[in-house]
From TrEMBL:
Repeat as UniProt keyword: no
Membrane-spanning residues: none
The protein's name: Urease accessory protein UreE
Residue stretches of biased makeup (Basic residues): 159-177
Region spans: Disordered: 138-177
Keywords, comma-separated and alphabetical: Chaperone, Cytoplasm, Nickel
Gene of this entry: ureE
Transcription is among the record's keywords: no
HAMAP family (alphabetical): UreE
The UreE urease accessory N-terminal domain, residue ranges: 3-68
A GO molecular-function annotation: nickel cation binding
Superkingdom of the source species: Bacteria
Function: Involved in urease metallocenter assembly. Binds nickel. Probably functions as a nickel donor during metallocenter assembly.
Protein family: Belongs to the UreE family.
Length: 177
């Protein structure tokens, strides 16, 4: 099985030279080592030195010098709109306070569906719309991947889940509210 050994950001690799592509959802685009099922049907082993947050248009260099294009797979999302910029900022604060992976777009926010969070947002005056599109949430302030704590294979190493966090895995940390 061929190995993908290097991740290169979009615009920094020869995209015209890719021999294949891999279409991955948000969670699968943050990995260090896993078997990738390419769009052509072949399998490639992702074997990077550390977990990397991949985005649509990025490239993976194969050990033989070839390239694999990364595509973001559309997935169910909720678009969040508010009456004005202040109200939208308030909604963003509530999502951030819950460590929820959130994509910031022009005049709106996007999250994965979560009925508890959606009810909270509607209670705060948000207008919600269900869509299906690629999800590219904001990266964390400390260089992490949008709320993920670095796990090599997506496993929970001592983490715990919070029902109100969409089942996301988090390590314990103190909050001062």
């Amino acid at each position: 099985m061929k190995r993908a050994i290097e991740h290169v950001a979009a615009g920094r690799w020869p995209a015209g030279e890719s021999s294949d592509a891999v279409t991955l959802d948000y969670d699968a685009r943050f990995r260090r080592r896993m078997v990738l099922h390419c769009d052509s049907g072949r399998e490639v082993l992702l074997d990077l030195p550390k977990a990397v947050a991949m985005a649509d248009g990025d490239g993976l260099r194969l050990e033989d010098g070839g390239w694999l294009a990364v595509r973001a797979k559309p997935e169910p999302l909720v678009e969040i709109r508010a009456a004005d910029a202040h109200a939208l900022a308030r909604l963003a604060w509530h999502l951030g306070n819950r460590h929820l992976a959130t994509e910031i777009a022009d005049g709106m926010l996007r999250i994965r569906p979560d009925h508890v969070i959606e009810a909270m947002l509607e209670g705060l005056g948000a207008r919600l719309t269900r869509v299906e599109r690629a999800f590219q949430p904001e990266g964390g302030a400390y260089g992490d991947h949008a709320g993920h704590h670095h796990h090599d294979d997506g496993d929970a190493h001592g983490g715990h889940t919070h029902g109100g966090h969409g089942g996301r895995i988090h390590h314990h940390h103190d909050h001062h509210h």
